[in-house]
């Protein structure tokens, strides 16, 4: 593939940042005493801080980068409730039917919470609640999706509908998939405008936000914890770690339990509403069932397409990532072969070994961590808030995500060297399955 797919104005920054870049805070690095210190300024950290400050506590948020510069201003903006937390796993087999039902209900509550927050606080972030099409890459994947739809509908009404191949053009102008599932339980958002809305809520509630100040260590100091950062020393009664895919040596315990995995997105040049609508007639995102997932969505305003996935499992520059993603997009939508890419960027997500997000406490420090891919906007906002409520003592019940088994792997210390091997094996299996399905 040639350089031709890169637009002249190609940039390696997120498309979202033209509307809201990571926040440059004017709060000084300083130091000081707070009721709670939050490490990490993504959705989890800010949601926690907002809840705590609303509850009357003094709160500071510290981030090693600019505020929100981690994954939270880089996401694709796909939202979902229960379908987001169990894509990769058999949840009932993992935690049992009753606990699985509680997790599904809480994931739905988390999605409803985000939508309410956006509406009640008038956060202008292009929230769309129009569902999602999940395309099956093989007939067998369609059958598995049908089983998932039954599982989701069992305690959640009838929001998951199977779409036979003959009807899929209502959702996607493509014959790539063998039918799919439409979920009403999904939508999309402008991730960095949503993040900026959380920044504004935190500021209005009196939270101190300090960027470019990495936390280096946390030590007990009587009823306080002493927090050493690049610039200054802090003391707090409680500390929350919300560092997700960017977790560093501050917490080796978490590093041993998380795999940071890079994900990449591209944005198309201006295509116009008619062309975007021709490809995605319902205006809702499409994601597929391959192990190495691909997705596409209209950008807010409906005049560009954003598409993403795992371009490669080893480090790769943005231009090369853009070319690989463009090739994957054209497999699904050959009619887009001529489009140019204006932006390509990546960020880190955190996977746990059982693919479940976690909240809890270790060594006296609270955490909300482990987004496990593309459900982090809803889930990390929610889990951050849950940690805040727990500290305040205002949670109506124990979260279904608390107390889940949280294991590492023998000899694993945080460098997921095996991910390229596993990822390429998954990609090969996807490719073989698609080939076999086409040949049948
Ligand atoms: C390319 C991409 C696409 C995605 N698409 C979607 C999507 O469509 N839908 C969806 O729901 N989710 C999506 N996600 C996942 C989602 O973005 C994340 O789950 C979510 O942003 C995580 O929020 P967080 O607050 O937990 O972590 P982050 O936003 O990653 O914030 C963690 C912060 O911790 C800071 N930090 C780390 N160590 C320290 C330290 N020692 N001291 C101070 N600060 C520290 C980092 O600088 C970082 O800013 C995507 C992610 C990526 C990368």
Can you walk me through this structure?
The protein has 440 residues and is an alpha/beta fold. The chain has a single domain (3-439), classed as FAD/NAD(P)-binding domain (3-Layer(bba) Sandwich). The protein is built from ten helices and 19 strands. It has helices at 43-54, 91-95, 97-120, 139-156, 191-204, 252-255, 273-279, 318-332, 376-392, 419-439; strands spanning 6-11, 32-39, 59-62, 78-80, 132-135, 160-163, 180-183, 186-188, 208-210, 215-221, 224-229, 233-241, 259-268, 286-288, 294-298, 305-309, 341-351, 358-362, 365-369. It has a nine-stranded mixed beta sheet with strand order 1-17-13-16-15-14-5-7-6, with helices on both faces. Strands 2, 3, 9, 10, 11, 12, 18 and 19 form an eight-stranded mixed beta sheet that branches. A two-stranded antiparallel ribbon has the order 4-8. Strand 10 (215-221) and strand 11 form a beta hairpin. The radius of gyration is 21 Å and the shape is globular. Residues 39-45, 62-65, 69-72, 74-78, 214-215, 242-248, 250, 263, 265, 346-349, 371, 374-378, 380 line the site of flavin-adenine dinucleotide. The site of flavin-adenine dinucleotide has 43 residues, from helix 1, strand 13, strand 17 and helix 9.
């Amino acid at each position: 593939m040639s350089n031709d797919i890169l637009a002249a104005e190609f940039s390696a920054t997120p498309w979202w940042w033209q509307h809201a870049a990571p926040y440059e805070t004017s709060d000084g690095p300083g130091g000081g005493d707070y009721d709670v210190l939050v490490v990490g300024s993504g959705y989890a950290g800010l949601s926690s801080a907002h809840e705590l400050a609303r509850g009357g506590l003094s709160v500071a948020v510290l981030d090693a980068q600019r505020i929100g510069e981690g994954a939270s201003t880089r996401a694709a903006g796909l939202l979902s409730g229960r379908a987001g937390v169990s894509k990769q796993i058999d949840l009932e087999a993992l935690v049992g039917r009753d606990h699985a039902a509680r997790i599904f209900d809480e994931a739905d509550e988390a999605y409803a919470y985000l939508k309410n927050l956006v509406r009640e606080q008038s956060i202008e972030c292009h929230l769309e609640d129009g569902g999602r099409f999940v395309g099956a890459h093989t007939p067998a994947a369609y059958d598995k999706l049908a089983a998932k739809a039954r599982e989701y509908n069992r305690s959640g009404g009838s929001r998951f509908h199977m779409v036979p191949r003959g009807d899929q053009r209502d959702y996607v102008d493509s014959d790539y998939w063998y039918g799919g599932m439409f979920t009403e339980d999904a939508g999309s958002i402008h991730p960095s405008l949503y993040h900026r809305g959380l920044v504004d809520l935190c500021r209005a509630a009196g939270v101190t936000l300090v960027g470019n100040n990495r936390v280096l260590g946390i030590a007990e100091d009587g009823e306080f914890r002493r927090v050493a950062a690049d610039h200054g020393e802090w003391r707090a009664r409680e500390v929350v770690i919300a560092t997700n895919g960017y977790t560093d040596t501050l917490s080796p315990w978490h590093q041993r339990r998380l795999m940071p995995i890079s994900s990449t997105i591209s944005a198309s040049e201006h295509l116009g509403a008619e062309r975007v609508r021709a490809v995605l007639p319902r205006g809702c995102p499409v994601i597929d069932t391959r192990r190495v997932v691909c997705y596409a969505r209209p950008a807010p305003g409906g005049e560009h397409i954003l598409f993403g996935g795992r371009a490669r499992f080893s480090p790769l520059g943005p231009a090369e990532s853009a070319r690989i993603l463009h090739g994957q997009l054209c497999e699904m939508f050959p009619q887009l072969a001529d489009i140019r890419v204006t932006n390509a960027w990546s960020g880190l997500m955190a996977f746990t070994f059982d693919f479940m997000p976690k909240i809890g406490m270790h060594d006296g420090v609270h955490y909300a961590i482990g987004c496990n891919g593309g459900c982090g906007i809803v889930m990390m906002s929610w889990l951050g808030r849950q940690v805040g409520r727990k500290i305040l003592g205002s949670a109506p019940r124990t979260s279904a995500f608390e107390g889940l088994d949280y294991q590492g792997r023998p000899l694993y210390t945080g460098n997921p060297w095996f991910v390229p091997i596993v990822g390429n094996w998954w990609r090969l299996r996807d490719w073989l399955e698609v080939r076999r399905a086409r040949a049948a």
